[in-house]
Specification:
The complex is a heterodimer of chains A (344) and B (272). Chain A is an all-alpha fold and 344 residues long. Helix content of chain A is 74%, strand content 0%. Chain B has a six-stranded mixed sheet, sandwiched between helices. In chain B, strands 2-1-4-5 form a four-stranded antiparallel sheet, with helices on one face. The chains are: A mainly alpha (344), B alpha/beta (272). Chains A and B meet through α1, α9 and α10 of A and α2, β6, α3 and α4 of B.
């Protein structure tokens, strides 16, 4: 039965979907473009054609080292870690319907950091063992925060407050261990305070790719359920979402991704926290935020690291740059949430 | 519309180990409008939450066509039984059409595409609630009455044969309360949807419901046609309030006039 009103609905629906695709496409193009840009323009400038030749495996004296050994691992690691942070962060924010519910605010990142610092300084461990411990601690803190805030189900606000408390405790643990650390382990441990991609190596990308493949696909398979959760737990449940089960899955995968990224680059400040809200601004709530936020996360780390390395007069780790960006936004958000009780 | 049986047997439920419902039995009449009334904390919202699986009973069952709803696949249940909770949340900036479309969730799987049937369901829901003109407006810009119509539209897009509503008229002025109740009646008459709602206002409940459920102390105090249930004795026992029941001159249904310590002719000793 032809009906003009249905056609109008369909047209508008397709327009919403198209806007979402365009926003996603633009973000993707921006990531690719900036990725190429950071490979080509640094302390020295390498012609784009030479960059492509290095990428295709052709040896060019000097350039092969600068692009292939220094810039490429850095850029790859930046994008992958950023994607992990962005995706994990926005999944938490959507699930708990609060931009403050990001893993770097509620203690998961500091949990991973504290465990890593403890392992390096006190247990004198190094390498993958530290990373594994950090991932485990991130999960442990997530469970702890979840358990402590459990009363007739988990209330979003309670979880956030408990998380902020736990995070503060863990930060002081980190500070204490670092203050007692011998100087030879300090350098390694400091990375766990402000994330950085210094000394990046291409094989470090492997755990990140793995985390993205496993946890990322779990999260993306829950896109619809996460979208339903934005309407409230009751409404989602009425729409046929198994809320408790979805929550557990989303928490486990988001924490897995965040912890894996933290293990490789350290806690790059506020990327998980910023990616979702920025993506929301860009897509104007047309469709799911997961993929746009993942790309925004990648962009934040890529650009943050570039600014810290090349643009500013002295060199800073990327975490300092994203931290400087995120802190004012955090204050703005707390002020605003206080006023409106707002949701993402 | 197919007939469904929705039955609570020996239902007990509560929070924090504290029992609120105790051994409640009720068969919801199919294809009719049922209003649940009762004093604060009598368990009416808890009952609705248990009926819709938001809450797992500690004892007893909720049976939909003979199967316990707690053993049914969630999406299958959501295709038959819909719920409008008391405080649903509209994501910032979402448009009416987008929100209403989300009612299609239980009909979609991960890889299924949006079909003409989905568009038709959304279109029908917008038409039935007279919200088509609002379709492209952001939900946060709407008035309370419009917003409630949009939420009902979303529940309609879900195309369930049974619709539960938790106080659908709260926070609305009287005009919009009537509008919402008229809309639910239309829905019941046109689609044969079984409507079960918790209502605060006894007189509106008596006017709009085919059957009243009066709850007290976590169980059913009285159940039946408004003429049978709404008596001064029931009001005394359930609400602890003296009252007079008269015939509503507009609807012919019973109507409750509360009697307080003040404000009655003859009782107003200190009225000047």
């Amino acid at each position: 039965m032809p009906s003009p009103t249905i056609d109008r609905l369909a047209v508008n629906r397709r327009r919403r979907a198209r806007r979402h695709s365009i926003a996603f496409g633009l973000l993707l193009a921006l990531v690719v473009l900036l990725f190429g840009f950071t490979l080509s323009v640094g302390q020295s400038i390498v012609a784009p054609m030479d960059v492509l030749r290095v990428l295709s495996g052709e040896p060019i004296p000097g350039t092969s080292f600068t692009v292939g050994q220094l810039r490429l691992p850095r850029a790859v690691l930046s994008v992958l870690a950023g994607v992990c942070f962005g995706l994990g962060g926005v999944a938490f924010q959507i699930m708990l319907r609060n931009p403050l519910a990001s893993p770097d605010i509620i203690g998961i990142t500091s949990g991973a950091g504290a465990a890593a610092v403890f392992a390096i300084v006190v247990l004198q461990m190094s390498g993958p063992a530290v990373s594994l411990l950090a991932v485990g601690a991130g999960l442990g803190v997530a469970l702890l925060v979840y358990g402590l805030s459990f009363r007739n189900g988990v209330g979003g606000t309670r979880l956030i407050l408990v998380g902020i408390g736990v995070s503060a405790m863990l930060q002081s643990v980190i500070a204490y261990i670092l203050s007692a650390a011998p100087s030879w382990s300090l350098q390694e441990a400091m990375r766990w305070l402000t994330g950085s991609v210094n000394g990046a190596q291409l094989q470090q990308a492997l755990p990140l790719l793995l985390a993205l493949a496993v946890f990322g696909s779990v999260l993306l398979s829950r896109t619809r359920d996460l979208e339903a959760l934005r309407l409230g737990d009751d409404m989602a449940s009425a729409l046929g979402v198994r809320v408790a089960q979805t929550r557990m899955l989303v928490i486990a995968s988001a924490v897995g991704m965040i912890a894996a990224a933290t293990a490789v680059t350290g806690p790059i400040a506020f990327v998980a926290f910023l990616a979702g809200p920025i993506a929301a601004r860009i897509t104007r709530s047309n469709g799911s935020l997961l993929l746009p936020a993942a790309l925004v996360g990648g962009l934040l780390v890529l650009v943050g690291d570039y600014v810290g390395q090349v643009v500013l007069p002295s060199r800073y780790p990327v975490g300092v740059i994203t931290g400087a960006l995120g802190a004012p936004y955090l204050i703005f958000l707390i002020v605003r949430v206080n006023r409106t009780g707002g949701a993402l | 519309m197919t007939d469904h049986s929705l039955v609570a047997t020996e239902l007990s439920a509560g929070y924090d180990g504290k029992a609120i419902l105790e051994g409640l039995n009720l068969a919801i009449p199919s294809g009719r409008i049922t209003a649940i009334v009762g004093a604060n904390a009598c368990g009416k919202s808890t009952f609705l939450r248990t009926l819709s699986r938001l809450l797992t009973p500690t004892k007893g069952h909720v049976l939909l066509d003979g199967t316990s709803i707690h053993r049914m696949p969630a999406r299958q249940l959501a295709r038959t039984l819909g719920l409008l909770p008391q405080a649903p949340i509209a994501p910032e900036g979402i448009t009416v059409a987008d929100l209403v479309s989300r009612g299609r969730h239980p009909h979609k799987s991960l890889f299924s595409r949006w079909t003409r049937t989905d568009d038709e369901a959304v279109d029908g829901a917008l038409a039935a609630t007279k919200t088509f003109e609002l379709a492209e407006r952001p939900v946060d810009e709407l008035s309370g009455g419009q917003r409630q119509r949009v939420w009902i539209a979303m529940a309609l897009a879900q195309e369930t044969d049974i619709l539960l509503l938790d106080e659908p008229t709260t926070f609305l002025d009287i005009h919009h309360q009537i509008e919402v109740l008229d809309l639910l009646t239309d829905l019941n008459r046109a689609r044969g949807t079984t409507v079960v709602m918790v209502l605060h206002d006894l007189n509106l409940a008596a006017r709009y419901a085919d059957d009243l459920v009066a709850m007290a102390g976590g169980t059913i105090h009285a159940f039946g046609a408004p003429e049978v249930v709404l008596t001064d004795q029931m009001v005394r026992e359930v609400f602890g309030l003296e009252s007079r029941i008269i015939e509503d001159p507009v609807s012919g249904r019973p109507m409750m006039l509360p009697i307080g310590r003040h404000g009655s002719a003859g009782a107003g000793a200190n009225r000047r």
